[in-house]
Design goal:
The protein starts with a helix and ends with a helix. The protein has 5 helices and 13 strands. It is 18% helix and 45% strand. The chain has a 13-stranded antiparallel beta sheet with strand order 6-5-4-3-2-1-13-12-11-10-9-8-7.
């Protein structure tokens, strides 16, 4: 082989080297912890719109949410009028729903965390983020993803933790390592739904997806779109906000 031909072979190799170095396999656990902490802070306040799309109708809800650290969250529906005042409170592993129409507070057991919230494709767990991707699931593997491009982390539910998906696949984009897609599998190993995290914006000094689209499998014309209209991080919140007394005082 002559020197000119060797030079031609070396050029693409040298060009490819920096790209390969930049594409080092990330630590799966670090990605999952980042996912868990996306919307968490010492005090987070948000206004959210949820659009529930069905083949024959579309229903839209406006709500406010507050959370404190990892274990406290409160969500209150403001509109439409027929649902106004409905609230969900989480403190630690305890979850309650307040229903103003019947003036009752109902505790949601851990086994029902995967239950649908307010007729949407969101689960109770989605709403208050009780489970942890980093701690409640075991990492089964990490590999490059082509569609969408990024890194895919495969998760398996820990058998001792109730109310989890059997298996989850989360895809993180390569630049900021933010989650952009998640696939959830039921106890029979079937794909149950797909979640897309879109419209990444910088808010309060951090990058977050501001639009989350959940599409259930085997159900034509159904999806739920959750949009963050406004978010504030590290705000001061009164501890009493996350109490049953405050929840029931809304009567």
């Amino acid at each position: 082989m002559n020197i000119g031909r060797i030079g031609l072979l070396l050029v693409p190799m040298l060009c490819a080297a920096p790209s390969a170095a930049q594409d080092t396999v990330p630590a799966a656990q670090a990605l999952l912890e980042q996912f868990d902490e996306l919307y968490r802070s010492t005090g987070t306040a948000a206004r959210i719109e949820i659009k529930i799309e069905r083949p024959k109708k579309v229903r839209t809800m406006q709500m406010r949410s507050w959370s404190q650290g990892e274990d406290k969250a409160l969500v209150v529906i403001d509109a439409p009028a027929r649902d106004a005042g409905t609230a969900t409170l989480r403190v630690g592993s305890n979850l309650w729903n307040y229903l103003p129409k019947i003036s009752r507070t109902i505790r949601v057991p851990p086994a029902l965390m995967m239950g649908a919230w307010m007729g949407s494709d969101l689960t109770n767990d989605d709403l208050v983020r009780e489970s942890s991707y980093a701690h409640d699931y075991s990492v089964a593997g990490i590999s490059p993803s082509e569609e969408p491009p990024g890194w895919q982390v495969d998760l398996a539910a820990k058998p001792e933790v109730p109310g989890l998906w059997e298996r989850v696949e989360v895809v993180f984009e390569r630049t900021e390592r933010l989650p952009i897609l998640a696939r959830y599998y039921d106890r029979k190993g079937r794909l149950s739904r797909t979640m897309r995290l879109e419209e990444i914006k910088k808010i309060g000094g951090r990058l977050i997806p501001t639009r989350i689209v959940i599409v259930p499998e085997r159900e034509e014309g159904r999806r739920t779109v959750m949009t963050y209209l406004h978010v504030e991080f590290d705000v001061e919140l009164d501890e009493s906000l996350f109490s049953l007394a405050q929840l029931e005082r809304r009567r």
